[in-house]
Amino acid sequence: MTDQSSLNSPNSHRGAARILWLSPSDTVLLFSLSGESREQPQTGDGLRRQISPALVFSISSAFPYFSRDLNGCGSFFGGSMSKKGFVFPEIPSLISKDSDKPNWSLCIGAGVSYPLFPDWFELAAKLLNKSFKTDLFSKESLKATEFSPDTLIQIAKNESQLDSVAFENLMSETLYQNFREKVDPDDWASISAFLENNQPLLFKNEQKVFKKYQETLLKQTTSYVLAEAIFHSIDKNIAPKSILSFNAEPLLFSILNSFSLDKKTDKTHTVPKRLFNKVLNSTSNQNDKRIQFYFCHGLLPLSEKSDIHTFSTQKLVFSELEYLNLTNNAFSWQANTFINHCLTQHIFFVGTSLTDPNMRRWLGLTHQNRLNEMQSQEKNVTESTQHYWLNLIPENEEQIKMTEASVAHLGVRVIWLQKWSQAGTAIEKALGIYEKTKALKKPSQKTLKRTPTSKKGYPKTTSKTRANNKNIKESK
User: Which of 128, 152, 298, 442 is geometrically suited to a Cys-Cys bond with 316, CB 3.0 to 4.6 A?
Assistant: First the structure.
């Protein structure tokens, strides 16, 4: 459960982590979920510095100590120095077919579906209002509390006193509420059928209804521009190996399927190929000729009548209890899937705040493993960037530096955007496949009046000129 809207939120942490102020002789206490703490005396220049709770939690989870040198720069034992992010549009080609790891994957959070779908604080507010039968809870008021979205959803579940299936249906109803209200009621049955399907070729009629909203509602989301970039990468033979979704809805998956139905496989054959596999668990069909689309945090059903093969509630990670269960399971399907991708591919993170403790733990472990392996071959290696995080650039320079430093020890480098509509182009630039399209200029009036010429460059003869020439000959 991660979304871009919670980035740098002072309340996006979990457990007992708190804001820490550093000054000379301060002792920094880093609290872990188990309540254990370690302490390390600090020395410095006396400047008080506020450390993000999410960052403190990550450090305490992955590394024993955090220290600050005399220049006031944070460093991690076992971590890496932060690198400056790339700022759009100055994004170099970062991945090519000739690199050591030509494979790449996309990892998405709730931000790619916003504003058609709510972010996590909005979802939590709506669930709390329904559970407590009030309208007092709002996104802003919840951000001001000490609770993270998964804790707030757990509170809503506890208060509702609903069983797991009933609460899942309530979450689904709440998650799709905004989308459903924005479309024609007569179209919703077809739209929901296309959203749920595993085989788009069998749902061509439903796709026609879904497509009605593609250039309006769906185009407002980051998922739309990501889908365009993915198909461009397919055309250039550098398609993603897979897509990792931490969302419980299939918006990007459905847009990709809709695009694939419109795409001709070649000039003579008009039947589109099935390009993507919906992967809900380890037993899902994973045809290696298709791009795997993993739903790492499960997938909610759209209704109580949904086919059991179209969703996965066993893998849902919404509430705090579900998060804790995943944390305690070192060999979960989600952990193995994510870690395998971190080890073998470049990952572009979009629409995620990267404050999810599990995700950060997995990134930290795989990055440290990569450094250890590289150091065994070349001892001078101290840092390495393997993954990239697309994010909106803050106005504050210190916040930029802090955000870049918050993922340096995870092997992640930031790609800064001015707006989310640039996300697709940013990925194309990073893949080295971006093509600047030139707008066709309308011919000027001067051009339109130009004397027509033949292929050899001589003026063409018209009926008028031929008549004039004939009159001249007769007069002679």
Answer: 298
Helices (H), 212-250: 222-235
Kindly report the number of other CB atoms within 10 A of residue 350's CB atom: 28
Within a 10 A sphere around the Cβ of 43, how many other Cβ atoms?
13
Can you point out the beta strands (E) in 85-149?
86-87, 104-108
> How far apart (Å, rounded) are the C-alpha atoms in residues 437 and 37?
56
Please list, in sequence order, all residues whose beta carbon lies within 8 angstroms of the beta carbon of residue 333, skipping any fewer than 6 positions away. 281, 282, 315
Q: Which residues contact 67 (CB under 8 A, 6 or more apart)?
A: 40, 42, 74, 75, 77
Query: What predicted TM-score, i.e. pTM, was given to this entire model?
Result: 0.75
Please give the Cα distance from 104 to 242 (Å, whole number). 8
CB atoms within 10 A of CB 239: 18
pLDDT in tens, 169-208: 999 999 999 999 999 999 999 999 999 998 888 899 999 9
Give the residue among 218, 283, 312, 288 at the shortest CA–CA distance from 257: 218
What would you report as the CA-atom Rg of the chain, rounded to the nearest whole angstrom?
27
